[in-house]
Amino acid sequence: MNATWRLLTLLSALFSAESRCSPTSYYKNCWIRRFPGIYIDVEESLRRGAQLLKFYQEETALKCSRTCCLTRNFSCNLAIFHFDATQESVNCFHLHCPSLESCILSHRSNVVLYNITKGVDPDLLVFGKYFNTNVRVLPHHYSRSNASDPLPPDKRHFIHPRPRPVPPAPSPKPISTETTQQRSHRHLREKRLTLQPERDLQTPQPG
């Protein structure tokens, strides 16, 4: 696998112009990257340790690359398709390059090279990591469209000071039900009690 990624890095470095326009697709647990105009010298690569797994006639370049993806244990990591081959000739080659030095690259027209690497379905990736299905997100808290947008000021969570306790309201004074007449009688009684000691002081004592 490391050799495959190093080979992909070399392809990107040597042919940067083609790499920018080369699309990458996903198929059956494989990432398939297309490099038009890039060819591998099969005979020289076999001398350097590469393995020719299969060569046959295929209908399209897409089928040639996808068949490479379906090999057991991902043994096929490179597929070459020739567009100008005759109807009876071989036009699809599947190879395994174990190291960076085992595959000899060159330019050739009417040829497309596919680099196949094992991968994970992009729908199961979240920021480069596997998505844990046990994690539940409430839909009304987050949405795919505005998950990264800042919340408006009225929805941000701030720590506010606790409100001061409100003192209990004073109990209302009892409302007097005393009538005006009763109040007058009460004042008269109080006045009599006040005058009674003065009368006692003015009364002469018997000799």
Keywords:
Hepatocyte Growth Factor; rod-shaped; two-stranded antiparallel sheet; 207 residues; alpha+beta; 6-stranded antiparallel beta sheet
CATH architectural category of the domain at 2-120: 3-Layer(bba) Sandwich
CATH superfamily of the domain at 2-120: Hepatocyte Growth Factor
Series of H and E elements: HHEEHEHEEEEEH
- Assembly context of the chains: single chain
What's the shape? Answer: rod-shaped
Query: What is the overall number of helices?
Result: 5
CATH class of the domain at 2-120: Alpha Beta
Strand order of the largest sheet: 1-2-6-4-5-3
Helix % is: 25-40%
* Overall pLDDT: 71
Biased composition (Pro residues): 164-173
Biased composition (Basic and acidic residues): 191-201
Subcellular location: Membrane
Signal peptide: 1-19
Would you give an account of this structure?
With about 210 residues, the protein is α+β, with helices and mostly antiparallel strands. The protein has a domain at about 1-120: Hepatocyte Growth Factor (3-Layer(bba) Sandwich). About 30% of the residues lie in helices and about 25% in strands. The protein has helices at about 1-15, 15-20, 40-45, 60-70, 180-200; strands at about 25, 30-40, 50-55, 80, 90-95, 105-120, 125, 130. A 6-stranded antiparallel sheet has the order 1-2-6-4-5-3, with helices on both faces. It is rod-shaped.
